[in-house]
Amino acid sequence: MPAEPAPAELASAAERIPEGRALHGRVILIAGAHGALGHAASRACAAAGASVVLLGRKVPKLNRVYDAIVREGGEALLYPLDLEGATPDDYAEMAERIETGLGRLDGVLHVAASFPGLTPLENTDPAAFARDIHVNLTARWWLTQACLPALRRAPDAALVFALDAPERTSAAYWGGYGVAQAANAALVNMLHAELAASTVRVAGLTPGPMRTPLRARAYVEDAPDAARDAVDYAPACVELLSASGSPHRGTIWTPPA
Ligand SMILES: NC(=O)c1ccc[n+]([C@@H]2O[C@H](COP(=O)([O-])OP(=O)(O)OC[C@H]3O[C@@H](n4cnc5c(N)ncnc54)[C@H](OP(=O)(O)O)[C@@H]3O)[C@@H](O)[C@H]2O)c1
Hints:
Blueprint: H1 7-15, E1 27-31, H2 36-47, E2 51-56, H3 59-71, E3 75-80, H4 88-102, E4 107-110, H5 126-153, E5 157-162, H6 166-169, H7 175-195, E6 200-205, H8 213-216, H9 234-241, E7 252-253
Parallel strand pairs: 1-2, 1-4, 2-3, 4-5, 5-6, 6-7
Helix pairs in contact: 2-9, 4-5, 5-7
The protein binds NADP nicotinamide-adenine-dinucleotide phosphate (NAP).
């Protein structure tokens, strides 16, 4: 289970980060920081010069990301939060604490995802369906909405939503997770249209298949070469969060494999 990339893998990813310390001086919030892509992206953002706010629901796993960042000379702080139970007030408090404590907020990367496995809609537990829609869509929006005032105060802010290829996850059995992927694509388009005249850039990121716990729930017997390590997509996260992400504004970007 490649949830934690080896330092050598991260180092090679860091070498591909555009413009060296592209996030120097920026504060970036990463929702889902101890997931596979979240872990790799958090370390890459810190290596690119950002102060990284690590949001996740499991403190020991967050601590491992934090320790790796500090070991590599980066700056991070933990923000334990369960997206399933968090309210709009919790997100408002979080945004206020980030801005008060760190002075600014320049970007949000959404890489948390709830996917229990492939199930026919007809057999899906109603509460599980609601949870997947909530964590994968509503919580993302509530968090984003609470952060927008701080993001608008930043000179060049970015909102980045990771999403799974809607054409694949709209097929049978992808359940609430799949429905939420299609809705995330709509959210990116809608939010981009509404913020087009502002300093807040909105983009989607559709990584290719990655060997992660999430993918393992759908592809039990995956061929070794069917997916890549999440660390390979960390530079794309840095690119979208940095000034070099401007060309991707309003798009859903699939980085080259
Ligand atoms: N893997 C792929 O092939 C693939 C392909 C295309 C797009 N993506 C997208 O890439 C992103 C990252 O996926 P991944 O493969 O890195 O998945 P992952 O390793 O399973 O990470 C997902 C993270 O979300 C967290 N999470 C789930 N429910 C949460 C909640 N209620 N509150 C807070 N955190 C919660 C998980 O925490 P726990 O560890 O506590 O469960 C985990 O840390 C997702 O948006 C996914 O849709 C993935």
